[in-house]
Write a structure and sequence with these properties.
82% helix, 523 residues, mainly alpha
């Protein structure tokens, strides 16, 4: 096998690589979500079955991976920064054995318990096959998480970027192929089609693991040389290393774990609550609107912002380990500003163009524009919470994001239990819109607590004019441009052309506004 070279990427280059990868991944993800939502026999009901099973899977996956990518990334980067490649590789080997075992047990648990979960927890019996189809992937994704964490810690970010691109490519292609086969064989049985879509997730995870394993084999000789030449090796027993991994990973895992619990609150409460005033079939379709279409669109900015978070954790850990606190502070400020500039226009765009966007992407399933508008208000808080949580993890304050999100999740659960059961004919934020609104409140609370605590530990130079007033002004200019250009072009062109053209024009105006308002300094 051809020997590869391990190439380290700098912070900004890492962000750029991951950002491009995330854009590619989300475009593919949107394509397959458009396909299954618009596919005859699938639609919103299929999304409900698919998503409910997927959220339970995501919960167990978070448990089995226990914050591994960021935790391993942090620990490995610290060892590498101190010249201990041998210690870094030892952490990697022990983590592979530990989380491989946990992942295998979680796969068995999901497979064996799928019937109880589908019937009693979700009250969507059709989700049983989806859960069984997803079960094996927990084992492989646990291993994938460890390998990604190791290479992220070495600041070889391209490995993660390539892996997630490969996984999403196969997931999109296999989803379409399997659903088409199932549709022909079963006569468009929705529950089996949903299970087929989730089976594609498992197969793509296996192929992603295969890529990462082959890559690791390719760089093994170079890693072995580094290990052999290590001068600052600090020996720890297997037990001590596992304890250290869990000490770092458990606090880091609490945030993504609470995130999946957040989504499971919807999967468990929405159908139950809506059945008070809707038929079971309509209630499932309403949940499918939120989980299938709305969540897919609202999480797009979060996916792009992941580039910063993934690059921030090892970058901050390594920089602080070397005592370069001023450099770390500047990276923190830069990332918060970029996050704001990503979140605000995305939020505004989805609120303004909810109906045209749904008409463009889901022409066969148009419902859900108001739910999308309500849910879009959470975007700025979600991406800011994501970035600030990554910063806190990078500076070693791993428990704070978990505590702040816990408060938010409790608030969401209470609001869900109250609002979802209210008929929207009596209160506009009742029903499914109530669940979307409770998500916004959840992330507003978590984001606020995170930011207050970050300012306590890092003396940030956050100027209100630069970080709030000017970005809002630029977003306002962009929004006015978008509205008038869309209204002007719609009578002349189709919805698709008018929407895309107005988005491109408003994006150009937004970039120009950022430059004119001097939101970024020359430096």
């Amino acid at each position: 096998m051809k020997e590869r070279k391990l190439k380290k990427q700098g912070f900004i280059k890492s962000v750029a690589i991951l950002l491009l990868s995330q854009i590619f991944v989300k475009i593919l993800g949107l394509i397959y979500r458009m396909y299954i939502t618009n596919r005859e026999g699938f639609g919103d009901k299929g999304n409900a079955i698919y998503s409910s099973g997927f959220q339970i899977y995501a919960l167990l996956l978070t448990v089995s991976s226990i914050g591994v990518p960021n935790a391993l990334s942090k620990m490995v980067s610290e060892r590498i920064a101190l010249g201990d490649s041998k210690g870094a590789h030892r952490i990697f080997r022990i983590a592979i054995a530990t989380f491989g075992t946990i992942g295998f047990l979680c796969s068995i648990l999901l497979f064996m318990g799928s019937k109880v979960i589908a019937n009693n927890w979700l009250q969507i019996p059709e989700a049983e096959m989806s859960l069984k189809a997803l079960a094996p992937s927990i084992f492989f994704v646990s291993l994938i998480s460890v390998i990604k964490g190791y290479f992220n810690g070495r600041e070889c970010i391209k490995v993660t970027a390539h892996a997630q691109s490969i996984e999403q490519t196969f997931k999109t292609v296999l989803t379409i192929i399997i659903i088409e086969i199932v549709a022909v064989v079963t006569g468009m049985d929705t529950s089996i089609m949903a299970a087929g879509a989730n089976l594609a997730t498992t197969l793509s995870a296996i192929l992603c693991f295969s890529y990462l394993y082959i890559y690791y084999i390719g760089v093994r000789k170079e890693v072995a040389k580094e290990v052999k030449n290590t001068c600052n090796f600090k020996y720890n027993t297997i037990g001590e290393t596992i304890k250290r991994i869990f000490k770092v990973s458990i606090p880091m895992s609490l945030t993504p774990l609470l995130g999946t619990i957040n989504k499971n609150i919807d999967s468990i409460t929405i159908v139950r609550g809506l059945k008070n005033f809707l038929t079971e079939s309509t209630a499932k379709a309403q949940y499918g609107i939120l989980s299938g279409k709305v969540d897919t669109l609202v999480t797009l900015p979060m996916s792009f912002n992941t580039a910063f978070v993934t690059a921030l954790v090892p970058s901050l850990s390594g920089t602080i380990a070397k005592g370069k606190n001023y450099e770390a502070k500047k990276r923190i400020e830069y990332s918060i500003l970029i996050t704001i500039l990503i979140g605000l226009p995305c939020m505004a765009g989805m609120i303004l163009f909810a109906t045209p966007i749904l008409k463009l992407l889901f022409p066969n399933q148009l419902s859900g524009d108001f739910i999308l508008q309500v849910s879009a208000t959470s975007i700025i808080f979600i991406v800011l919470e994501q970035t600030i949580s990554g910063i806190l993890q990078g500076i070693g304050k791993t428990i704070i994001p978990a505590i702040s999100l816990s408060v938010g999740v409790i608030a969401k659960l209470i609001l869900n239990l109250v609002l979802v059961q209210i008929n929207p004919d009596f209160f506009i934020l009742g029903g499914t819109a109530g669940a979307a609104f409770s998500t916004t409140i959840c992330h507003l609370i978590a984001c606020s607590i995170d930011f207050i605590m970050l300012k306590k530990y890092i003396k940030l130079d956050i100027k209100i004019n630069q970080y709030i007033i000017k970005p809002i002004l630029a977003t306002g200019i962009m929004s006015i441009t978008a509205i008038f250009s869309y209204q002007y072009m719609l009578p002349i062109f189709s919805n698709t052309i008018a929407l895309i053209a107005s988005i491109l024009l408003s994006f150009i105006i937004y970039v120009l506004a950022i430059i004119i308002l001097k939101i970024f300094s020359k430096k």
